[in-house]
Amino acid sequence: MFAIPLAWLQLIRERVRLLVALAGIGFAVILMFIQLGFRDALFESAIRIHQSLEGDIFLVSPQSSSLIAMASFSRRRLLQAQGVEGVASITPIYMSFGQWKDPDKQGARGIFVIGIEPTKRVFPKELLPELDPIKLQDVVLFDGKSRDEFGPVPLLYEQNGSVETELNSRRVTVGGLFSLGASFGADGNIITSDLNFRRIFNRDLGKIEVGLIRLKPEANLDEVLKTIRQDIAGPSKDILVFSKAEFVDFELQYWKNSTAIGFIFNLGAAIGWVVGTVIVYQILYTDVADHLEEYATLKAMGYRNIYLLSVVFQEAVILSILGFIPAYFLGVGLYRMTENATALPIYMTQERGTFVFVLTMVMCIVSGAIAVRKVQEADPADIF
Fold first, then answer.
1. Residue 326 vs residues 8, 26, 275, 332: alpha-carbon distances, Å
2. N or C end of the chain: which has fewer CB within 10 A?
3. pLDDT grade, residue 13 (50/70/90)?
4. Residue ranges of domains in the chain
């Protein structure tokens, strides 16, 4: 079967047709990479704050749909959890969107603001090494990976040691930077103290968006969850109680099922696969039609259909490999360009690369399976 590389020889005989086929396959592969990359970036960026929070149990309002649309609930519910056996500490977290004024161009843009108690560790030290600046009045920490539309804040901070601007028409000072990154819901982030949060938003600190609970090392997570759900959340039903994994899944389910974004990206990847299938089919069908007399001659010489079919499938596999390799590296470059432009966590992963490669192989094999019917019709008696 492989003594004479018939499939390869047929493909390189028409070099222009081969290049057109590879370009079409590459386009389909890149389209799948881009759509799946944006989908995964959406999910990953949506849960970065959840994964960064150093807590074991989280309380939220049942009216909340996602982190960017959190409803408030009474802080008393969090204080009640303090008395549950196994709870080590509690921390209220405040969240809202504020209008940030670009210190350079003076344009206003919505930014996600998180208020925390500066005496308690909510985020890891790798993310927030220093909380002392926000203990001062009207001082905030700015996410250095926010989109550029918020102004050259990191550059100005490095040059001057601080940046003054306005947040919700209140004068604030950037007293430090951290690195978290933008998401589909929030183009930028700010962290400040709970008191500064109250000043900026004129909010009552008795209403919180998230209640963070840390457990003692010896505490059993399932037992504490059950106790809080029964004794605190059960009677009033005004809070939801999540473990950290459940809190992350709560956010993911919103973006997967309650918005059209995830569906759109999956649909885009599916369209790319269909487009690639049609392109490869057209190439293989045309190649088979051009060499139909040769296939009939091989049949007359005694070659069976299984050999002729294998030739077409070999062509499909060769096309999938040759089309995937350049598209893969081009996809890596497009990911880097997109990450620099949008501040979203979009990058090539081994799992996605393998998945798209399998899709490419299946795409070409399916096309070959459709086109191969023409080979079976090759009858020496009819042609000669």
1. 19, 7, 18, 10
2. C
3. confident
4. 6-45+260-383, 62-238
